[in-house]
Amino acid sequence: MIKNYLKLALRNLKKHSFYTILNISGLSLSLACGLVLFQFIHYHLKFDSYHRNAANIYRVVTDLHLDDGSVQYQKGAPLALAAAIQAEVPQVKDQAFLFDNYRDHSYTVSIPQPGNTSNKLFAEHGNVAFANRHWFNLFDYQWEAGDPRTALEEPNTAVLTRKQAEKYFGNTDPIGKMIRVDGQEAKITGLLKDHPANTATKAELFLSLPSLKRLYPDLYPSMETDWGWINTGASLFLLLPEGLSSKKVDDALAALRREHMAEMAKYYDFHLQLLKEVHFDPRYGGVIQRSLLSTLSIIGFFILVIACVNFINLATAQNSRRSKEVSTRKILGSTPAGIFWQFIAETACITVSAVLLALVWVWLALPVLNQWLQTELELRLFRDTSLMTAIFSLIVFIVLAAGVYPALLLSRFKPVEALKSRSGTLKQPWLRKSLILLQNMVAQSLIICTLIVTWQTSYVKNADLGFNKEAVVMIPIPTSDKNGLAYLRDQLLSQPDIKDASFCYRAPASKNFFAGSVRFDGRDWEKYAAQAVIGDSHYLKTFGLQLIAGRNLAESDTVREILVNEQMARDLGFTDIPKILGHRLVAGSFNDQAGNIVGVVKDFHLQSLHNAIQPLLITTLRKNYAYAGIKLSGAHPDRSIHEIKRIWQSIYPNNVFEYHFLDEQIASFYKQEDLLNKLVGSFAVIAIVISCVGLLGLISLLTIQRTKEIGIRKVIGASVFSITALLTKDFVQLVVFALILASTITRLAMSKWLQGFAYRITIPWWIFLLAGACNLALALMTICYHAIKAALMNPAKSLKTE
């Protein structure tokens, strides 16, 4: 029986090949979108879920509550808290402290070579961490060599992943070999298998925690004893036993805070964050929000829906052709159930064909998509059970959603009425119109969202930030030695294409900066946190910051003089900004060091435009200089970079030369907006294509149904324009109505999205008309071809049509 159904289904699909191709094309595009979105969402939802104890592992995060009511969020926790938990909270089963990405630092790893051969040098970014054996108690790593109980107990020991070992040593055994990390030797004592890509901990090289003291002696002893010492690179993870709630541990942390921090305890709140939430909370360094995944899920669902709408519309529009076929089969003895399953078999054949074509689309698109999405998605059909389950679920969903209604409709035709009927048209045209309305509403909503996201992203990328970001190169410096930096600057400024050079902690716009309260002229500490920028006397000129009162900083190795921005002056109570000059300011972010305010700079954006401008100070502190900002003339950038590299390598031969342009760094602030723009824009295009494919098939069927009517109208004098207008009028009305609905929905949704930016565009009315005009133009181009073709047909031929 099934074989017979399939044979008849294939015969009918071949007979109506034009509509079969349209259905398969539309479905395959929507299925390809659905599969890509499924893999993308599944990839992110499974972050760190492979750890055996994932449900019981928590990270300790910090909320800093300021007197003005604002809250600053830190993903780090103090090492002093870890010691207190170990001593005073016995309920905690185990804990691990990880120190990574200190000051967004790039490490230089050198591999000693035999003989007089120069060492191999590698620059490592974000994949070097300091840990001890407790890290491997909490988290699951597969060991190829070494003992996890002792591998990281001693100073100057290290554990590598297989990928990193091959990078450094090729295929030779790395155990026992030596490496140098920023000049400090380390012995390889363990080898790990590569961890999955979807983990928040990207470390490939683990150094023992005791090695940290030798590499950064200036961090001690405050790092171990100061409860206020919190750094984004210092993460504390706890393993709780089964049955112990995180709320009880939060209460215990609050008690420890009150006991050890005295009056400062009111400003700090240490609490637990479940490991599976680390990836999704942007307040504590998460890289993607669950709301974005939910939005993409909804978009994927609606793209599948509009493909199903195409199928239903085309199936019901073919009633005039299929009704007589069905009625004849009924007279010859077919049952309604048999006819129903026959049409379900046709739907299943189309769906399976569309799935196969969709897999081809996905396979071709994945290399590009992985670059876009910054993922490592793979199409592993027979090894990925979740993907196979998703594909099977999609097939069932589409067969039920798109096939059941047309199959029921056709199987219930009454033979006598169907054989007498010359039209076979659907008695409820409102259903088809509703489906077309839904389809166009989805497409137009995506167009509007794309336009708004594109405009807002362009606005924040091109907004005036208050400083000059063009032709500025940022180069990490391996040491803050005074004589070395002075020589480097002299060599750089001797080049004609280099206008200036500044040594600083970070550029004016950065994700990393210092912050702390300030005390002005002996007053109490202010009720807000001020951001702090560290730079030398060349900082203003190099980055084009505008000094509006006073003078520039004098060259100094310590905090002696301070510049403030306009916002700081206003917050300190100065309406006449120059009057702030000469006053004393204590900076809590620099261990309460004090300096005289010697100048005021015009407000500039230290953070992305998601955030409003905050009070800010600028001062010198040489030990924290981490970058050289180099202002180029812009005339010969390639030649300038070549000269900078030559100078660099002559001064720092044991370090890897790296650079990036400041405008590229600022653009990275908006990666999530770029991702959303690319995804929504791509889906908008696909939704429009699917809609047009459906309209193409629908108008071709409807013109065939009205062929005789068109011939009669032409005989009595109707023009080509009037006939074309007759055939397109209903579609145009539906597109316009869809625009009204889409505009209402998207205005509310996008207004809420824009609230995430402190500086944002105002949505203009014409953006909705532009989206409607684009969709209407494409719909008319699709519709008018068949409409005009039908209008130009010879009336004599039209009237012969049965």
Structure description:
The protein has 802 residues and is an alpha+beta fold. It contains 24 helices and 25 strands. The strands form 3 sheets. Strands 1, 2, 3, 4, 5, 6, 7, 8, 9, 10, 11, 12 and 13 form a 13-stranded mixed sheet that branches. Strands 16, 17, 18, 19, 20, 21, 22 and 23 form an 8-stranded mixed sheet that branches. Strands 15-24-14-25 form a 4-stranded antiparallel sheet. α11 (336-373) runs antiparallel to α12 (385-411), α15 (482-493) runs antiparallel to α18 and α22 (720-754) packs antiparallel against α23.
- Number of separate strands: 25
| Overall residue-averaged pLDDT value | 84
Shape: globular
The major pleated sheet works out as: 13 strands, mixed
Distance between the termini: 34 Å
**Low-confidence sequence ranges:** 422-427
| Contiguous helical run count | 24
- State the helicity in percent bands: 40-55%
Rg over alpha carbons: 34 Å
The structural domain count equals 4
β-strand amount: 15-25%
What structural class do helix, strand and pairing data support?
alpha+beta
